[in-house]
Amino acid sequence: MTTPHERIVQYLTQVPAWYLATCADDQPHVRPFSFAAFEDGRIWFSTSNDKDVYFELSANPKFELSAWNPGNPWIVVSGQAVFDEPSAELRQAGFEHMLGLGEAHDSANDGRLVFFYISTGYARICDITGEEESFDL
């Protein structure tokens, strides 16, 4: 049986991009993301520690993401980012994904490559009819 965490990662990895929102100085900031992974019961994402998203999540870890795969319900996930070190396998997968996007990291161990997971999260899966499924993460 698929857990809600696994279900969310499956959804996010089936679309080319999804959007993550942060807030800085009462101003929302939204940007596309495309790496999501499930490991040790957590949903993980990656970014670089020289990007605005890293500084914004470090100052205020609350975020929200949304994705829509045409012909399917859309998903909204709210939570708090916790920066942590993933397994070597997940670090390698994130590195390879970032390289595929054109990011300039030297290796999977490049110190600029950072990972965070969802803590205190909540997800909603909604459709056009108003049907909604929700669960804690």
Tell me what you see in this structure.
With about 140 residues, this protein is of the alpha+beta class. About 20% of the residues lie in helices and about 45% in strands. It contains three helices and eight strands, in the order αββββαββαββ. Strands 1, 2, 3, 4, 5, 6, 7 and 8 form an eight-stranded antiparallel beta sheet that branches. A hairpin with a 5-residue loop joins strand 5 and strand 6. The longest helix has 13 residues. The radius of gyration is 15 Å and the shape is globular.
Write the layout of secondary structure elements.
Layout lengths: L3 H9 L5 E7 L2 E7 L3 E3 L2 E7 L3 H8 L2 E7 L5 E11 L3 H13 L12 E14 L5 E5 L1
Antiparallel strand pairs: 1-2, 1-5, 3-4, 4-7, 5-6, 6-7, 7-8
Structural class: alpha+beta
Low-confidence residue ranges: none
List how many beta strands DSSP finds.
8
Tell me the series of helices and strands, N- to C-terminal: HEEEEHEEHEE
How many helices? The count is 3
The share of residues in helices is: 10-25%
Oligomeric form of this entry? single chain
The overall pLDDT, averaged over residues, is: 92
* Major beta-sheet overview: 8 strands, antiparallel
Question: Hey, roughly how much beta strand do the residues contain?
Answer: 35-45%
Globally, the shape reads globular
State the distance separating the first and last CA atoms.
16 Å
